[in-house]
Amino acid sequence: MAYYPLKINDWIMCYSIDADVAQESYTVIISLGYLLFTLFVLGLLVLLYTIFNINKKHQKNLLEYVKKDALTGIKNKETLKTEITNYLAKDKSQHAGALFMIDVDNFKMVNDLNGHVIGDEVLKAFGTLLKESFAIDDIVGRAGGDEFIVFVKEIEDEIQAQKKADEVCQKIREIYIEDFKGSISCSIGIAFYPKHGITFKTLYNLADQALYQTKNRGRNGYTCYIEK
Question: What pTM value is reported for the model?
Answer without folding.
Answer: 0.73
